[in-house]
Write a structure and sequence with these properties.
The protein has 383 residues and is of the alpha/beta class. Helices cover 45% and strands 16% of the residues. The chain folds into two domains: 124 residues, Response regulator (Rossmann fold, 3-Layer(aba) Sandwich); 248 residues, Rossmann fold, CATH 3.40.50.300. Bound molecules: adenosine-5'-diphosphate and magnesium ion (MG).
């Protein structure tokens, strides 16, 4: 654990130097800031692996500091610890709500507690992200491209072709998720309710026990936000930990991101083993897909970790596979034909397309694509 960098922000020089010294003893590289403003600059400029903040700062509130970090894609998942002389529960709560991962009070036990917490946060955020199950995200440039339906159907087919694997689907489309309505889930547990629980209660074990099994769909579901109001209540800062924990209990985690590309979902896309891109055959949507591809490239997503599916969701008209490949300058991995109203019909009855229409060619395409997608994700992980 030597090359990790920790930023310590505290307006009280004696306290800051003491903690800095202890962290150096533990083998960390330490940088220090004496105000929130300086802390923000150092965080974004020097890219520490973890930040320890006394929330009682001379210039800004620690809570505001945390909110600023959580609103920025670069630091949305950065481990953040409040080290405070205020033991008041209201303060603990407001810091957690603002996005702090942990709240530790300054006492004789502060240093050992800090040490444990740091080890755990580093363990959870990095090693588990690398080690856990394979993360496959589903994206599109525009709604109505079939992202959610295909995500659910691919997950079902993946479970069929790899019966020994544990498959979970997480719905991260905001403000309203739609996997629940496709698979017919009516339960209360959603990404919003789960993110509201304290971090220590939502470890890997929690998700192994509680994620409901979707029966004929053969996967476990972390349902999406049921409505915009719930979406507004979402504790954004918890998403990273939640997905990391789900990943450590399942072999494959498929996330429907849809077109909700945001600061919340970008780090997950960047850490995904495979990005499944749904491409519409609608000519007017093509430039949007081009923009999305360019964006992903700029964010460090390699073209060989993109699995692209051309989906003729809008009808028989539109681009051919060759047109799309030429115009976007990519290889299309799978193409799904227009399925008329059958797809919507299967969805509305909460049934996988493959079960409802086993003899349709699309059922074979789904199965082959699921197999290929899983193999590619494993290969990219180096398995
Ligand atoms: N290949 C297809 N053929 C016919 N209808 C499709 C096809 N793909 C998707 N659809 C329909 O398009 C609609 C939008 O699909 P959905 O999965 O909700 O898209 P998104 O998640 O990208 O918004 C649904 O009614 C679905 O049944
Ligand atoms: Mg959708």
């Amino acid at each position: 654990m030597t090359n990790k960098k920790i930023l310590i922000i505290d307006s009280d020089a004696a306290s800051r130097n003491f903690i800095a010294h202890k962290m150096q003893e533990l083998g960390f590289e330490v940088i220090q800031a004496d105000s929130g403003k300086e802390g923000l600059i150092f965080t974004w400029r020097d890219r520490p692996d973890l930040v320890i903040v006394d929330p009682v700062l001379a210039d800004i509130k620690g809570e505001d500091f945390a909110v600023k970090l959580r609103q920025d894609a670069r630091t949305v998942q950065l481990p953040l610890i409040a080290l405070s002389s205020d033991p008041n529960l209201a303060r603990v709560r407001s810091c957690q709500e603002a996005g702090f991962d942990e709240y530790i009070t300054k006492s004789g036990q502060a240093v050992p507690t800090l040490n444990d917490t740091i080890n755990r946060l580093f363990g959870v955020t990095e090693e588990a992200m690398k080690k856990g199950g394979l993360l496959i995200v589903f994206l599109s440039a525009k709604g109505g491209t079939g992202t959610s339906s295909i995500c659910a159907n691919m997950a079902m087919n993946l479970s069929e072709v790899r019966p020994e694997a544990r498959v979970a689907v997480a719905d991260l489309v905001f403000p309203i998720g739609s996997i629940s309505s496709i698979v017919g889930y009516k339960g209360e547990e959603t990404i919003v309710s789960v993110a509201d629980l304290p971090a220590q209660d939502t470890g890997p074990d929690f998700f192994r026990r509680t994620l409901p099994n979707m029966d004929i769909w053969r996967f476990n579901l972390l349902a999406g936000s049921p409505d915009p109001e719930s979406s507004n209540q979402l504790k954004v800062g918890r998403i990273w930990d939640v997905i990391t924990a789900v990943k450590s209990s399942y072999d494959y985690v498929l996330i429907d991101i849809g077109r909700s590309l945001s600061k919340i979902t970008l780090p997950l896309i960047q850490h995904a083993d495979l990005v499944v891109l749904l491409i519409s055959t609608d000519i007017s949507t093509l430039p949007l897909t081009g923009t999305l591809l360019e964006y992903l490239k700029n964010k460090g997503v390699h073209s060989n970790s993109i699995y692209s599916i051309l989906n003729r969701s809008a009808g028989l008209e539109g681009l051919s596979k060759t047109d799309a490949e030429k115009l976007l300058n990519i290889k299309i991995n799978a193409s799904i034909p227009y399925l008329g109203t059958n797809f919507a019909f299967a969805n509305s009855q909460h049934q996988p397309f493959t079960l409802k229409f086993p003899n349709d060619t699309a059922s074979i395409i789904f199965r082959d694509a699921a197999r290929e997608m899983a193999a590619l994700a494993r290969k990219l992980r180096g398995e």
